[in-house]
Fold this sequence. Notes:
alpha/beta, 7-stranded mixed β-sheet, 5 helices, 7 strands
Amino acid sequence: xxxxxxxxxxxxxxxxxxxxxxxxxxxxxxxxxxxxxxxxxxxxxxxxxxxxxxxxxxxxxxxxxxxxxxxxxxxxxxxxxxxxxxxxxxxxxxxxxxxxxxxxxxxxxxxxxxxxxxxxxxxxxxxxxxxxxxxxxxxxxxxxxxxxxxxxxxxxxxxxxxxxxxxxxxxxxxxxxxxxxxxxxxxxxxxxxxxxxxxxxx
Length: 202
C-alpha cells in the first residue's frame, strides 16, 4: 500500500470539522442531547446541586434534577465521512455565563433547546446568539407530559425571525438529535452564502 493512500487506491479524506454549541435553560436536556449523539464518551463537568446553591439556582419545574453542568459538555459526531461536528454544551445557569464567550469562539452555529413548559428559560440563549450574529436553530425538546405546539406558535412566543428554524426533537434519541444538528449546519451555510452574496452586491 502506498503511504497516505487507502487500500483501494483513494487518498484518505480529510474531514471538515465544525464547532456547534448546545445551549438553553437549566435542565432542558443539553447534557442528554450531547450524550445521545456523541460517538465518543462525552466529557461532562457535572456537579451535585448543593443546599448552598439553592437560593441562587432556580430549579422550578426541574425539582428532581440533582446535578448541574459547571463548565461544559463535549462530544463528537461524524455526520458524513467528510464532516465531523464537535459539540459543546453550555452551562444553563446565570452564574456560569462568563464561560459562554469562550465556548462561542469559532462556533459555526448553535442549538437552543427549549421546553414548552418553561419556554422563558431559553430567552437569554436566543438573545445571546442574536446579538452575536451566530446562526442557531431552536430545538423543542418533547418531554413526556409536555404540551405539543406547532413550530409557528413557538416561533411567535420566542419572537424569532422567520428565517430561524424551529424543530421538534427528542434529546434522548440519536437520530432525532442528528437531524437537528444537520439543520444547524444547513442553516449556518445558507446564512453564510446570503451574507457573501450581499457583500458582493455592495
